[in-house]
Amino acid sequence: MTDTMVQALPSLLVERCNDAGELIGVVQLDEEYFGAVVNVPLLHQVVTAQLAAKRSGTHSTKTRAEVAGGGAKPYRQKGTGRARQGTTRAPQFTGGGIAFGPKPRDYTQSTPRKMIRQALRAALSDRALEGRIVLVDRWSYEVPKTKEALASLRALGIDGNVLLVIGSEDVVAERSFANLPRVNIVESAQLTAYDVVVSDWVVFTDDTVPGQTSDAPEGAVAFSSPRLALLEDEDEEVAEDLDLESVEDVAEPVEELAEPAEDEEIAELVVAEPPSDPEGVAEAVAEVAAEEQEAPKPKPKPRPRARKASVKTKASEDDEKEEDK
Asked: Hey, what CATH class is 13-56+108-215 in?
């Protein structure tokens, strides 16, 4: 999920496959739903409101008036040295009531419909930007089988958390995917932005994809192809498409170009070593060292000494005493 407002691609193409993973064609998605601006603050506000609406709000605690017992005064009012108490069901006592505890309430938030619809478009556009939209023509299961549903996901190259958007008539497909732990099944009329955000892949059918789809121009390539993503022999299939026996065949022409021909001569580069003692350098260094030794070094300046207070002699002190007498 991006953390800023990003403009989606103007033209979004997706491959249209069957439930066996075979390519049928390339389809262009509706820009109104898959080409909207990804407004992250709006998406966060709507998702928070949708999560709040899912809360039951049945939590409840008992206050001191609702707890049973505690009718008698635990001890007399005065003379015990303790704080006065009227009941043992006060919040400070064990087994007493709960002060300011949760009570049943409704957590739903009023969100405008335009915001809810725009948040859904933003979530679908974000998944389309990442190439996480898969389109299947229909689910051709005759009887509910989890094994066939799992095989379809592997053939489509889907892994992780999957959001399966089905119609009201796809009962067999719903029962086939119901036992898969990482598959969330939602009807197209109940699709929300939160369902899209918590899923890695969103799988639509021709009947449940929002908006109007159109055939892509001839020669168009899909934005991304999740098919063949989980195949074990991916390198061998690439080699078959290139008509190569193995991946090593790709490196042979490069090696032939790298080898020189017989008639060509390769010039060797010889780097000349610098002379050990260039002329004139040693003499100049010796002259500079001699000049530095002959130059007299400046003497350090003496530190200023603090003046001492004048000390009176003993004779002067005796003269002063005689004058006083």
From this structure: alpha beta
